[in-house]
Amino acid sequence: MIVVVTPNPAVDVTYRVDEQRIGTTQRVRSVDRLPGGKGLNVARVLASEGVATHSVLPLGGPSGTWVADAVAALGLTATAVPVPGETRTTVTVVDDHAHPTMFGEPGPTVPPVAWLPVDEAVRALLPTAEALVVSGSLPVGSAAEVVTPWIADAVAAGVLVVADCSGPALLAAADAGATVCKPNREELAEATGCADERDGALALLDRGAGIVVVSRGADGIAAHTRTEVVEVAAVPDVTGNPTGAGDAATAGLVLALTRDTADPDLATALRTAAAFGAAAVLRPVAGEIDREAAHRFLTDPEPTRSTA
Ligand SMILES: O=P(O)(O)OC[C@H]1O[C@](O)(CO)[C@@H](O)[C@H]1O
């Protein structure tokens, strides 16, 4: 079972319009409303691959109740931890021409004491966990160190941790010894202040991260250890909705790493991440992949480079 913490869950709304135009009245062609936040998208992709997951969700207010009900309706196992305030809504506007536009609300104000039951929920699940995934933003105003107990407890219990965090929470995840930190290129540069990817990755490794996986969009994905950089190219010529592609890539990475824990093959893990990320672009909403395409992309020979 894989434990997935979504620190700032959301009612994820996707509006499809003919063409995104700033400063005009836009008629919405179709609406999708799904439980989201990056971690829930990871859990949904893992579940679609038949992997047992257990989500930990700090939820508040009527929209929190909606998320809990929608998660249950999707057949996902979850522990909903009540927090003050109202679970946020995110709105993504997509058309057939431009990149999606995402509006993300900040999320509720969660005081430090309200995080303690979340810590307890994570701790209770660790004895039966193969991996812990911490994915997505924290509610605005929550301290970065909120992630520390989840990761430190999992590491102490010998559980593989994949942290897809940004900003100070990415540094806190590395400090807590996350097995894998998975920022994208921009998040890595922003959190570490290093313009060079290798320097940024080494900064996280120095702080305590085991491996740093950097997603590079159309330029593929790379894994940095102290001694090598393994690089895999992106799947070429895939068009569609890239919202949630990074979350699907995280799911692919976790899937590959938990299948091969004794001796993780980084190239295979990166190829799985790239294939899942590309397969998510083919689906209209985040949290889904085109499974047939994902498995086809996986068997396509992709160039892998490894440098010492
Ligand atoms: O959890 P966050 O990091 O705030 O990101 C949330 C948003 O990003 C997406 O997960 C896409 O990656 C959306 O589904 C939306 O929920």
Question: Fraction of residues in helices?
Answer: 25-40%
Task: Report the sheet-strand fraction.
Answer: 15-25%
| Global morphology | globular
When the domains are counted, the total is 1
Taking the alpha carbons of the first and last residues, their distance comes to 34 Å
Q: Quote the CATH topology.
A: UDP-N-acetylmuramoyl-L-alanine:D-glutamate ligase
Small ligands present: 6-O-phosphono-beta-D-tagatofuranose
Count the DSSP helices: 10
CATH class: Alpha Beta
Helix/strand-derived category reads: alpha/beta
The radius of gyration over CA amounts to 18 Å
Within CATH, the superfamily carries the name Ribokinase
Strand order, largest beta sheet: 5-4-1-8-9-10-11-12-13-14
Q: Work out the number of β strands.
A: 14
* Multimeric status of the protein: single chain
How would you portray this structure in words?
It is a single chain. 37% of the residues lie in helices and 23% in strands. The chain is an alpha/beta fold and 308 residues long. It has a single domain (2-307), classed as Ribokinase (UDP-N-acetylmuramoyl-L-alanine:D-glutamate ligase). The strands form two sheets. It has a ten-stranded mixed β-sheet with strand order 5-4-1-8-9-10-11-12-13-14, sandwiched between helices. Strands 3-2-6-7 form a four-stranded mixed β-sheet. Strand 6 and strand 7 form a beta hairpin. Helix 9 packs antiparallel against helix 10 (291-299). The radius of gyration is 18 Å and the shape is globular. Bound molecules: 6-O-phosphono-beta-D-tagatofuranose.
